[in-house]
Design goal:
Blueprint lengths: L2 H14 L5 H15 L5 E8 L2 E9 L5 E3 L3 H9 L3 E3 L17 E9 L2 E10 L7 H15 L3
Antiparallel strand pairs: 1-2, 1-6, 2-3, 4-5, 5-6
Helix pairs in contact: 1-2, 1-4
Organism: Sporolactobacillus nakayamae
Family: Belongs to the free Met sulfoxide reductase family.
InterPro entries: FRMsr_CS, GAF, GAF-like_dom_sf, Phosphatase_reg/MetRdx
Length: 149
């Protein structure tokens, strides 16, 4: 991971390390990613509740409130517990279009003590916006974040 992304994770840790409230930490985490990443139009969290993903703190336009496990990019990433990097969401089977402007997406499952907490979801209006480097950074970001949730 490059030094810029290491610094970004250190800033995240400084924002959340002394706060025990999950919503406050997720709010600051989404705001910080919104500041760090260019050419995105939505960044936020869906949290697992009663077997489905429920909208959590985010930055961007209004969003879908509930997503069933296995549906869309978020539900599929959550069910499979795998990062999904989708170059063109219009080609993803069952894509849920919350914002018609979104073209690419990356979803990172949030797992703590082998339990799924939810997902980090980021959309971009540009096709193929998210690189392998972005994925590595966001995976490390999520790992850091869940230690404080």
């Amino acid at each position: 991971m490059n030094s810029v992304n290491k610094t970004r994770i250190q800033v995240l840790e400084s924002l959340i390390k002394d706060e025990s409230n999950r919503i406050a930490n997720l709010s600051n985490a989404s705001a910080w990613l919104n500041e760090c990443l260019d050419t995105i139009n939505w960044v936020g969290f869906y949290l697992l509740e009663d077997g489905e993903l429920v909208l959590g703190p985010f930055q961007g336009r209004t969003a879908c409130v509930r997503i069933k496990m296995g549906q869309g990019v978020c539900g599929t990433a959550a069910k499979e517990r795998e990062i999904l990097r989708v170059p063109d969401v219009h080609e993803f089977p069952g894509h849920i279009a919350c914002d018609a402007a979104s073209r690419s997406e990356i979803v990172v499952p949030l797992i703590k003590d082998d339990e799924l907490i939810g997902v980090l979801d980021i959309d971009s209006p540009i096709c193929d916006r998210f690189s392998e480097d972005d994925q590595q950074f966001l995976e490390a970001f999520a790992e850091t974040l869940v230690t404080y949730l």
